[in-house]
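Database export, one record per block. Field names are fixed; values are copied verbatim from the stored entry.
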Amino acid sequence: MDLFWHWIELIGEWIWSTPTFVALLGAGVLFTVWTRFTQYRVMTHGLAVVRGIYDDPDDPGAINHFQALSAALSATVGLGNIGGVAVAISVGGPGALFWMWVVGFFGMALKTIEITLAMIYRDTTDPDNPSGGAMHVVKQVLAKKGSGWAVFGSIIGGFFCITLIISTITGGNMFQAWNVAGLTEGYFGVPKVATGIILAMLVGLVIIGGIKRIGTVASKLVPLMCLLYLMAGFAVLVVNADQIPGLLKLVFDSAFGTAEAEGAFIGGTLGYAFVVGMKRALFSNEAGQGSAPIAHAAAKTAEPAREGVVGGLGPFIDTICICTLTAMVILSTGTWNRDSIGPLATEISLAAAGEGDEYIVTTAATVSHLPEQRLDQWSHGDKLFVLAEAQGMTHRSTGSNRFKITGVIDEVPDPEHPDAAVTLVISWGDVELKSSDWDGIPGDIQILEVEGGGAGIYREYEGAQLTAFAFDRVFEGLGKWLVTLAAWLFAISTMISWSYYGEKGVAFLVGVRGILPYKIAFLLLAIVGAAMIENTDQMMLLADLGTGSMLVVNIPIVLALGYIAVASLREYDRKLKAGEFSRNDGK
């Protein structure tokens, strides 16, 4: 299994190399300028279209503009907004939020282009179940050049569908189930496998009905879940309103400098904040990924550019609004750089495991040596960490010499007395300071202690758990109840829409005969994601693999054919200014 994760990490490093970031940001900037800052059109005309002013029931498609946007948002507004943002801030620092804004702004133009393209080349042969996306775009465009090119177009479209299915399995399914399972187990003690089974059953009831049922459910679920979450977030920010100006300054300072290590935060450079912020924003709003055009392709409209403008609202709502709210809650409550909850009441150190980069934890610490936190007691499955510094070394990504030593609470039954209460022990993970990740010559490793002596203990909150804890620090129980509810709603909505995306990829590859086996596999993998992924690092490797692989295939398609969408947008603008479109509001 270690070899599997090693290869996933290597593939991820290749995908998320400098060319990917350059191509992505470059595409966003290019289409922003080329479309004459279409973000303005998105925020004005796009809102009018969503209100139904230009709806025509006789137009081709299966669902209206609002339902299409809701279906796409139900995929993007998910645990990336709660758990992904928490990861970004906790490891990348406040500066990660700035780079999320950048991706959100330019992503509005990029998503407008890719959705317009999908609408131009969508397949409406089945009026109740239209199909669209990059696979249809490249296939149809190249088919016009001849039969040989048509085969090439099908191959490229097939590659896109493979990456689409990978992303569906990882970020659109397993990531959602993993976050909800961890959050629900942490607060309510519900076994992760049980959460996975319940999620699979709920999602299964919806996805059987196809895009019309998905659009109907999403149009009701998305506004409700967003409203609940936004209300809770604003309540926290009102309490901490005096901190907001200083936090905004901190975000900008950290985006163009170094975020110093403090409390639970190990520190991060400008480059690290940039990479983390970009990844998490892309995972959240999916701009350039090619997923949202699949949902928007079902919209009722005879004007491709109209739905493209509607789709541009996605990154604004997802990243600039909801992700920002999550980040500000985490920052304003001091959750990202929180102090330790107390000292470990015994010594802990690292000892070299022999030749090489591996170290083992040496300590006599048991659960009885741990401090208590709030009203919680330590229980089976709880995760914790202490911080250490590697003298004379610097981590190449973070620019810091700090790292975590993690542990988890395990149960040890007494084989001689099986009916007796189990004993709780701490299982510490080994530490590997790989030379490929660190610069410098290994020196002394110093465990960071708190005032009065003793290694500082921190609870490990993974993904959505960190966001929920931030809410709880202001309103006890808000994170436990409302954020957990929001996480369930976000996860269900995302899994519903991503199951549809994957279905379209399967249909393109093998036809409709593959859809039922795919749906069964999708639901089973939700249980696997909930119960079998061990930690944040593993989950983010999988999520980044899915997002990155789609970007690598989709961005070249959008760059090569984007001129078609730009021409469509300009023609649409001309018609709009000339008053050629009828309106339903009496004007």
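Remark 1: The mean pLDDT is 86.
Remark 2: The first helix runs from residue 2 to 15.
End of record.
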